[in-house]
Every structure is written in structure tokens, then in C-alpha cells.
Amino acid sequence: MTKVKEQNTETVILEAAKEVFQHKGMAGARMQEIADKAGINKAMLHYYYRSKDKLFSAVFASAINLMAPKIMKIINTEDHLFAKIENFTYKYIDFISKHSYMPLFIINELNRNPNLLKDAFANKIENNIEQKLVAQIDDLIAKGEIRSINPEQLLLHIISLSVFPVIGKPLLKNILQKDDKSYKQLIKERQTCVAEFVINAIKL
Amino acid sequence: MTKVKEQNTETVILEAAKEVFQHKGMAGARMQEIADKAGINKAMLHYYYRSKDKLFSAVFASAINLMAPKIMKIINTEDHLFAKIENFTYKYIDFISKHSYMPLFIINELNRNPNLLKDAFANKIENNIEQKLVAQIDDLIAKGEIRSINPEQLLLHIISLSVFPVIGKPLLKNILQKDDKSYKQLIKERQTCVAEFVINAIKL
DNA sequence: GTCTATAATTTGATAGAC
DNA sequence: GTCTATCAAATTATAGAC
């Protein structure tokens, strides 16, 4: 009635695994919980993915392949730097708000095992981001439109301002003494105020 | 010869536990590994701390009680806002660089169990931070020294810029295509350039 | 207080019927 | 492909000697 067609079992498992792994991490995740969430039994997990490790790798790769293009698509445009910043912060904060566990999941698992990226994909992020953006920033500095700034630091600033308040929510909420609703409101405001802040900082 | 005196067993255990829990998380930590690192056997862990849960709580409380005062001490001064910002970013980036696993550890475990803070301490962070700082910022806005800005957002900006590049290192290192040494150099630069960036953003 | 040995439980993985 | 039943290993926790 509602659903046109059942997803196949493999996909159902992967979706359940994403949810459990991203919330509990590799070490904390339980195959039984994934099976329950998928509405099947444990044996099926092994039938489709052989081992917990393999299933985890599929989840991790899926997360990376969802995150990385989002960054690139916005940055690799012909827009003016200020427009890029506005675009990126708005859309990226929106995106990670809806997938708030994903960046933390990635950072965590990368800490446990630094060569996960190599396994997950052949460096799709690559230096594309840098090269084009760095050139654009250096150009604006030369023209005297913005202050002199290290382009890599600027990129770190923008990413930090966008990501950290979302993933650090349980801690920051407490520091600011906010309830869930008003903290969410703060994040929503950041979709525009981060860009404003950054542009104020660099504009001449 | 080298050490003047042996630490007592309880402390040795706690130090070993800190290291393991903060790197592996509650779920990934193994009592055996903690015992090995402490140079004793598993039974001793239970003799002193009864259970893994209890030992974890001791580690978590210790982390909170190390982090929280660091923030307050710097912010609760009579300095000018700009000096506070310079002081905070410089010292805080330095501190978390030396304890890079700690903020991630706290955020993670808080995600798994949001009322850990209540157990760990009776809200030592409290609204002290806010009240005084908010008043100071509002005052400077009224005087026309800085742009109009939501003080809470400014606090989020400063914390994000200080903390995220350190805890997100495994991911950001890859995005910027840096090796360990040059990424560390980037972080070192941030001890001064973050404050410069923030002050530029708000100064009128 | 500290150790060895072991119990009790959890959990990833497999065998085998249907 | 899917299930039930079960194994094998890992892991927290305890008992009891010294």
C-alpha cells in the first residue's frame, strides 16, 4: 500500500547496519541489534556480508561516499568566494544536522584505524579542493579584496565552524545550558551566521 | 633510582585506565589491556574498582574535572574581551593538543549516555561562563567597539575553531593532504591565528 | 593486597534443515 | 534465501590460596 516495493534484503541489512554502527561504533555495535533492526536473524548478516568487519567496511565506505561529494560539489563551482562560503555553510550544516552521527563516526573509526580511508575509496577527496580554492583565495588577496590569510587555515576555520557545533552537541548543549529545542535553534541560526562571521573576518 | 617513589596501585590503575578508555572508548576498552598497562593483573582492577563501569566512571569524571576548570580559569578574568580570546585560544589549543583524545572521548561517551555529566559532577561548568562573558560582549556591542553578535554563537565559534582541528585531525589531515609533521605545524599556527581571525570578525 | 584459576555471560560465526 | 540451534572464542567478574 504505502511502499511500492520491498527493498532487497542486502539493502535492508546495510541500512540497519549504518544506523547501529554510526551510533555505537564498531566496538559497541552488536550483530544481534543490527539483525533485529533489519527484521531478520543474525545468520543472514553473515550470509550477505560474511563478517562483522566486512559489514562495517561497507557502512564506512557508504558514509565516506556520501560525505565527500557534498563538499566538493559546493566548492568546485565558479562562484565568488563569498558565495561559496555562504553556500557551503548553509548546505553543509543542513546536511550534517540530518546525519549528525556521521562525522563523529568517521573521525572515531579513523582514529582507531588510520588506513580506513585507503580501503574505503581511492582518495576521492583529493587535492582538488585545495588547488582550486587556494588559487582563488590567493587571487583575492592579491587583488586586495580580502585580508592576507593562509588558505588552509581558512578552510579549517570554515569546516570547524560548520561541523563542531553539531557533533559536539551533547557537550556544548550543557556548557550553554540549553535544552534540545533551543540548541537546535542555535544550529539553525548558524546556517547563515557562520558565513557572515567568516566573511567579516576576511573582508577588507 | 629514577622515580622517587612508587605511585600507589589505585592511581596506577586509574592512569592506565585513562589511557585505554580514552583511546578505545568504553565499548572498545578491555580490562586485560588496562591491567597489562598498569603492570598488574585483572583481579586487581576489580579489587579496587569493582567493575568496568565503575572504573570507567572514575576515568570520565577525571577527564571532566581536568577540562572544565581550564575553560573557566581563562574566561573568568577581568581582561578585555580581545585579551581573553587570545588567551583562551592559545592556551586551550595547547592543552587539547597534549590531550587530543580527551574531547572526543567525552563527546562520544556523552552521546552514548547523556546523563554521564550529572553523575560525573554537579555541573561545575555551570552558567558562570555565560553570564559574565555575555554581559561583557553585550557591553562592548553597546559601546560600539565590536559588531552586533549573538554572544552564544561567538562562544561556539571560538570553541569550534579551537577544538575541532585537533580532534578531527585524522580526517582533516587527509582532506588537506598533510603528513603528521606539517599538520602539527598548522595546529601550532592556530594558537595565534584563530584569535586574529575571531577579532577581525568582530572588531569595528 | 596480590595472585592463579575458573565461573558466567556475551557475542561473532557456522552447520544444517527447509 | 531464510531459519533454528549450536559452537568457539572472548571477556567481565569472582573464588580462594598465599
Outline the structure in words.
The structure is a homodimer of 204-residue chains. The first copy, chain A, has helices at 9-28, 31-38, 42-49, 52-75, 81-98, 101-112, 116-120, 128-143, 151-167, 169-175, 180-202. Chain A has 204 residues and is mainly α. The first copy, chain A, has two domains: 1-50, Homeodomain-like (Arc Repressor Mutant, subunit A, Orthogonal Bundle); 63-202, Tetracycline Repressor, domain 2 (Orthogonal Bundle). Chains A and B meet through α1, α6, α9, α10 and α11 of A and α1, α6, α9, α10 and α11 of B. Chain A binds a DNA duplex (18 and 18 nucleotides) through α3.
CATH architecture of the largest domain in chain A: Orthogonal Bundle
Which class of secondary structure composition applies to the elements of chain A? mainly alpha
**3D shape of chain A:** elongated
* Spans of at least 5 consecutive residues with low confidence of chain A: none
CA-based gyration radius of chain A: 20 Å
- Percent of sequence in beta strands of chain A: under 5%
For the report, how would you describe the main beta sheet of chain A? none
Q: Provide mean pLDDT of chain A, rounded.
A: 92
> What proportion of the residues of chain A is helical, as a percent range?
over 70%
Number of domains of chain A: 2
User: Element order, helices and strands of chain A?
Assistant: HHHHHHHHHHH
The helix count of chain A comes to: 11
CATH-level-4 superfamily name of the largest domain in chain A? Tetracycline Repressor, domain 2
Count interface residues per chain for the largest interface: A-B, 57 and 57 residues
Task: List how many beta strands of chain A DSSP finds.
Answer: 0
CATH topology of the largest domain in chain A: Tetracycline Repressor, domain 2
Q: Under the CATH scheme, which class of the largest domain in chain A? A: Mainly Alpha
Distance between the termini of chain A: 59 Å
For this structure, the quaternary state is: homodimer
